[in-house]
Amino acid sequence: MSSNDNHLTTSWGAPVGDNQNSQTAGTRGPTLIQDVHLLEKLAHFNRERIPERVVHAKGAGAHGYFEVTRDVSQYTKAAFLSHIGKRTPMFIRFSTVAGELGSADTVRDPRGFAVKFYTEEGNYDLVGNNTPVFFIRDAIKFPDFIHTQKRHPQTHLKNPTAVWDFWSLSPESLHQVTILMSDRGIPATLRHMHGFGSHTFKWVNAEGQAIWVKYHFKTEQGVQNMDVETAARIAGEHPDYHTEDLFNAIANGDFPAWKLYVQIMPIEDADTYHFDPFDVTKVWSQKDYPLIEVGRMVLDRNPENYFAEVEQATFSPGSFVPGIEASPDKMLQGRLFAYADAHRYRVGPNHNQLPINRPQCPVHNHQRDGAMAYGDNGGASVYYEPNSFGGPKESPEHKISPFDVSGQAASVAYDHDDHYTQPGDLYRLLSEDERARLVRNIVDSMQPVELVDIKLRQIGHFYKADPEFGTRIAEELGLSVPAAL
């Protein structure tokens, strides 16, 4: 064997003698099919791109750690939160939502905020956004909502009419729409925005006692946003601005950090709170459920290879660890299936075996085979359960904590339909300058909508949130607030 370990080789390890010229019949050719190196290069090139994510296609990521700063063991038995000072390695992926893989970073869009904690009990994924709420509250509406954010099937252009038609017919979206159209709709950088788990989750302690919980990551860099004109200019001049900013900050030792807080709600309060606590279009008042500090997340290492780490990273809100469980949140319930299923399609059935996704603790199960199975594929060990040969088996102490359910099996909505109080409160919290920019952003976005009825219907929602809010938008659109509201 040659001592030169830097020889170019084929994928099966054979040295390549000529990487400049394909094998041909004479100087002109034609090319010979026996040139297996050429065939391998072309075939692999055709398969270099896995399908981009349907949503959150454009993203940036980084490695770091999470350190517990407050004892929360009275609320959860999750091992990575067990004591002050405990550090857990983690990886985060930030992303826009609607744009394609090559789209600009500085568009008006929510930002994905997906964190993977490599805990000793398995990977825990917290897959949220930079907003505490979402546009819809039932997963059955998600494909339709995302279709409105994508391109028109005939023109292949973005379609404001579809966007506002859907929102105007889905009043539960008003809270998120108000946030999106505010200054927070375009963060200055990925480092200067908060992150949220958005959904309600359940924490369970070692005694089996449960509480409901919401996650808030507060940026230590401070919240900074980007004005519309600057964002548009940068989108054209430097579409990868946010991606570069994050990479350079970490490369220069300016490690971004966030403090994690939670809101905690007693289990019984879910039946009496004035908003349904599982409705992801609503927030819990921090006056009712104050923020409790949990820990600190620091990003201190860039990926070595974007494709291997950022593009192939897979996150699922169903990746739980003992002490953290799902709630009845209807949007979350749909995501528990949809995300992992998307990864099985996009990356492959064994996506969890890739280094970026592989747990940093032992894995024992009876899943075998499938495309890209890595390692010894379970070897000769027992491959079913229950069994009589000492194979991995269930541990009853890790059953989920039960919670009561009731009612008829049917397609039903949430009991609470007040979609106006919280966006109205948000509008009234804004300064006059912030209100003016919010109104201008909405008007600019609604101006191209083809049907006046859609504009009037949406104006009605803004008016119900706050009469001034709706009236200002109507006037700038040259319309009147509908009489019948």
Automatic annotation (TrEMBL):
Its EC number is 1.11.1.6. The keyword Nucleotide-binding does not apply. The active site is at 56, 129. The keyword Lipid metabolism does not apply. InterPro entries: Catalase (IPR018028), Catalase_3 (IPR040333), Catalase_AS (IPR024708), Catalase_clade1/3 (IPR024711), Catalase_core (IPR011614), Catalase_haem_BS (IPR002226), Catalase_immune_responsive (IPR010582), Catalase_sf (IPR020835). One of its GO terms (molecular function) is metal ion binding. SMART domains: Catalase. Residues 1-26 have a biased composition (Polar residues). Residues 1-28 are annotated as: Disordered. It catalyses: 2 H2O2 = O2 + 2 H2O. It is an enzyme of class 1 (oxidoreductase). One of its GO terms (biological process) is hydrogen peroxide catabolic process. Keywords: Heme, Hydrogen peroxide, Iron, Metal-binding, Oxidoreductase, Peroxidase. Residues 9-393 form the Catalase core domain. Its cofactor is heme. One of its GO terms (cellular component) is cytoplasm. Heme binds at residue 339. It holds the Pfam family Catalase. Belongs to the catalase family. This is Catalase. It comes from Paenibacillus sabinae T27.
